[in-house]
Amino acid sequence: MDNQADRIKTEIIELRPDTVSRTSSPAYKSGQKLLLLYERQLVEAVVDEWLGVRSGSAHRVRLGKGSLIGKGKPAVAERVLIEVDLNEENHAKLMFSSGAKYDDTCRLYLDKLASRHATVKDEPTGKELQVCEQRLFLSRYVPPDTALTTAPAATGAVAGAVAEPETKRARPRFASAELRELATAPINALKTFKSLLMGEVGAAEVTVLRAQSRSERELLHAQVLAHMAELLRSGEVELMIRPVPISLSMAALTAALAEEKRVGVRDMLTRAFEVDYPTHADMLGQAMELRALVVVAEVRELSELASFTPAVLEELLMNRLVITMGVSTAEGVPIELPPALLERIRKANQLHVLGLGVYMNDMKVDDLQCRAIFRRMRLRSKEPSLMNEYGAVSTLHVAGGEVGPAGMQELYDLLTSEACELTRLDLCSALVDGQRLVAALKGNTSLTSLDVRFVSQFPNLHTPLADVLLSANAICRLGYLRCDAFELPEGQTSVSLREKTLDKAATRLLAGILRRNTTVRELDLSATDLEPEGAAEVVRCLSRPECKLTTLKMALNPALDEEAKVALQSSAVGTQCTLEF
């Protein structure tokens, strides 16, 4: 602080855990065991003596067994005697017989945490989904005061008419293009969870992760904890003080607050934690002393938000706080946080689920289960718990599944529905009616990626699908395809089909896919037995604005004589692509 008279000015500071730190002047007796941050390492230490009132909180301590707590590798030399000024930031009383015992307890707890949150139940199929295999797509949450959250009105709708049950998931309308871009730009969920674990968003900053339905919230909550546990178990995240992620049920805390009015907040938090982990209360206490907790608080009901009292928040904000919630109105509009709570967590970083990728590969999903999945994705119920359960699914993997007559009818209805928001579909090795699938794709505008490898009879459907994609009035947006003839997967900028024979139908299908492929820059079709007609179809795609090809190799194709090559070069004039023969 600058105390010069001409520079003194008055500042008003709100005293909160994220703006101030408690002062303390500990005076420990000789023999007190500590966990001490020394040279950016957490080590065991034993108090030799307190240096007296004149020295404040200065102590002479002996460093312990020379191990780095949480990493298990050599740190400082054993029995080093040092003088250190102890404060809340650099030490905590050791509540275990040794630092190694605490470390072992943390490892055992992380194993249990990972196991508890390894799966979530999928209601339509009754299957247990592996949490680590599912994909969450997040984006910034824009509150209603800057975006009007309404379902799109039907054209020519009559006032008072009953809305059709088939409609898109409620999407906000934004006041500006900048807000729309902010709220719809995808954010990597796993990277976000890692940054929360490492404290990269600020130790006292709160992150609110919003879902729009119960099932989304359950998956979101489970994946946060499972991923954090796995990062710590694998050693991928190494910090001075190892974080300890915990799941806090706000329902359990609400019950504790109602029953125990005189119990301290820390005791209530411990009791809520002990509901699921009754043998790890000591570990929780030690982590609290170290301010090492990453509290993942689950809000299931609107009433539970009232449990974030000032006293509870003060304790939680001593650590990192993540709130997962899926509270919304009957129409699917998210419930805002109470103003009093927002005032306390004014720096809250709010994200919401933009989309889901559901992976059921090799789970042997049968026809009726497929029917239930596709139906949930298409229909919108007035029941909040069901309304958006599959409404956010943009990626679906049912490889090896049985899409029989019932399931195929629902898949057809889904793909041809204006409500369809499915962009990626994996049917690899699935039992599916290929003809019905091609017919559905003709009327679909959402799907961009399809996997039909090892689907019986699909090679016979290359021509019908190519006709759909190459039609002058085609609305299908398929730009990525994995089939038995060739693979143009997402994300690849260079694709080589060299020495892979492409018949006429496969070549036309490839051309149809290239018309809407926006990522491939280099394509090698050398030695693929290209015919002039098929090569011309591929080259015609180069003039499409979506096509980004810059290099097209077609060497070693005997059917492409000099006359054909000249014609192809002429067709490519004016495009950004170079043809190589």
Can you tag this structure with a few keywords?
581 residues; Rossmann fold; 12-stranded mixed β-sheet
Could you explain how this protein is built, in words?
- It is a single chain.
- This protein has 581 residues and is of the alpha/beta class.
- The protein has four domains: 33-94, no CATH class; 111-150 and 168-354, 3-Layer(aba) Sandwich (Rossmann fold), CATH 3.40.50; 360-456, Alpha-Beta Horseshoe (Leucine-rich repeat, LRR (right-handed beta-alpha superhelix)), CATH 3.80.10; 489-581, Leucine-rich repeat, LRR (right-handed beta-alpha superhelix) (Alpha-Beta Horseshoe).
- It is built from 17 helices and 25 strands.
- Strands 8, 11, 12, 13, 14, 15, 16, 17, 18, 19, 20 and 21 form a twelve-stranded mixed sheet that branches. The protein has a five-stranded antiparallel sheet with strand order 4-3-2-1-5, with helices on one face. A four-stranded parallel sheet has the order 22-23-24-25, with helices on one face.
- Helix 1 (99-116) runs antiparallel to helix 4, helix 10 (367-378) packs parallel to helix 12 and helix 12 runs parallel beside helix 13.
- The relative contact order is 0.08.
